[in-house]
Amino acid sequence: MGSFDEFRKVVETGRPNISVHRYQHEQFNGWFHQSSVKLGDGISTTTRDITELIKTQELLQKAETDKHREMLEMTMRSLEEERSRISESLHNGVGQTLYAVKLYLSRLADTTVPAERDEILSTIDDLVSSAIREIRSISHELVPISFEKVGLKNNVEEVIKRLGQDIVFRLRYLGPDRIADRNLELGIFRIFQELINNVIKHSKCDLCRIFIKVGKKEIHLVVQDNGIGIKPENQHVSGIGIQSIRAKMKMLQGNLSIESDGGRGTKIEIRVPVP
Predict the structure, then answer these.
(1) The pTM is what?
(2) Neighbouring-strand partners of residue 170
(3) Whose C-alpha in 5, 13, 163, 225 is 20 to 30 A from the C-alpha of 22?
(4) Rounded to an integer, what is the distance from CA 215 to the centroid of its chain?
């Protein structure tokens, strides 16, 4: 409907009209906000140029779309990295162990010496036990069986207990054992797992301090090691898992900071708001 038709309708019905129009000519291309009211036998109309406002809204929408696309890409990369890590653990850990079991079973079938058979059976028992532990470890990384029952604190302590063989972990935990928002609780735990995996794989440290504070307004997590540190040029690459953590932090609308000098360890700190 054009402006003239809108004016006529206002006069005929007596009802005010508010509309937005785009005008395109050779020397002008813009948007106008127009309001019209009946005034006696005619009308009173006000026109305001809102071209800059429309352009700003379009830019904000594009920025929001780009942000969502970036978050989706980072999330997909994070999932692929997690799948690759699990695949590698299954192949190099459980797969190799089961292959060794197969070889020992072949040797068992070829021997009749009681002492040798007992030794082979003992080795097979150890290998199967090792495979079971490895599968439990991978399963715990996927979805901790006890998570629903015991919550964040106990699962963090379980990870430290399970992985603290070559590294001394010192934990300081403040606040309730559980976070009311289950998705937030699981998200924090996933970030914690990623941070600890990075410490074990890359830091070459012998001491790691962990601080967790569950407050009413935010969750504060700090992981600090005394290892080789991260070079500044490597703090944004995905190979050390930082991108995966950044993706999770964006989804939780949190903040991530990294302090690291070569040979002086690394301190990674996150703050996530509580909804």
Answers:
(1) 0.55
(2) 209
(3) 13
(4) 20
